[in-house]
Amino acid sequence: MTRDTNVAINFAGNVFEGAHPIILLADTELLRKVLIKDFHLFTNRRRIEGINGPPLNHGLFSLQNDEWKRSRSNVSPTFTTSKLKDNRNDFIQIMVDQTETHNSHLENTDKVETPTKQYLALKDDEIIGQALIFFIAGFETTASLLSFFMYALAVNPHVQEKVFQEICSVCIDENGMNDISYEKIGQLHYLDAVINETLRMYPPVTRFDRESSVPCELGGYMLPTGTIITVPVYWLHHDPDVWENPEQFIPERFYSSEKLKRDPLYFVPFGIGPRSCVGMRFAIQTVKLAIVQCLYQFEICTCEKTTIPLKFEKALNIFPQDQVWLCVNKRSL
Ligand code: HEM
User: Fold this and answer.
1) How sure is the predictor about 16, in pLDDT bands with cuts at 50, 70 and 90?
2) Would you state the pLDDT for residue 17?
3) Which residue's C-alpha comes closest to atom 8 of ligand 1?
4) 277 a known binding residue?
5) Between 265 and which of 28, 130, 131, 222 could a Cys-Cys bridge form, CB atoms 3.0 to 4.6 Å apart?
6) What's 309's domain CATH number?
7) Domain count, the chain
8) Where are the transmembrane segments (predicted)?
9) Residue 202: CB within 6 Å of ligand 1?
């Protein structure tokens, strides 16, 4: 579907996937309703054949309604600031620890509370399901962000130089010591803007969806139960009415003053609302650590084989049509 057609049917781009009609929703006010205000009506994603059996059926991605709520409240503490600060990326251990703490708490509390609290703790097969979905949802997406980031730096050397200078001034002391603590990483504001601009131009997940769980009204239309609303992430990130010169890599768009001028619904690489990506902060932290380690030692450049601009496959995730070639030079420190 072309951008022009989409603009014309901003609310209801009616598209068929196989025999199934879906609504491609690009109106940010209506998106706010679906993803945030009326979340209770659109809590679930559509069920995807192939990931409904065990153990993936226990993973956050495909759980529905109360089962999702219960798991999400158990899984969220895995990604708290203190766990990120300690670089604790053994998710299975964190979830097992939580369950053990929970169980010992149960043994020490009165029996009246027990049934509800037992209902809250994650069982072993659920922990396995969550761990597996973390791997599936987190591995390819994070790798994609890192790869496109390196590409963007190679084709925009002035941006790379600015990122490098910021890393040197924040993380490297006069003895050349590399301090990449949680606090230092948090001070790399330009790097943060460059990562966001990479996520805008090359969102690893180009769309996601919600399904209505009851008949409900949206933008003056009555939607039957089971209506699928698709959020066109790539499209929102490239809307020329919101992003001036959307095909240009301009990290300054993500300075705080610029962000205030935009509706946040135009930048949703991790989704938004109660069902947004649970691993977002972990992903950003991981990527920043990798970037600092890499850019401090190496410079990324284009070479004869580098394709500029990139061309993409038509897929759910973002894939370049051809292999992406870059050149890596060791810095003399
Ligand atoms: C750059 C990296 C990543 C991107 C761009 C990304 C993007 C997304 C998006 C777009 C969604 C759907 C949000 C929605 O429906 O509103 C999602 C969901 C999810 N992501 Fe990520 N993700 C990333 C990394 C990770 C990592 C590292 C993990 C785990 C360690 C993770 C775990 C999940 C899970 C479990 C869900 C489902 C959440 C739920 O239904 O409650 N993601 N992610």
Assistant:
1) confident
2) 76
3) 270
4) yes
5) 28
6) 1.10.630.10
7) 1
8) 132-154
9) no
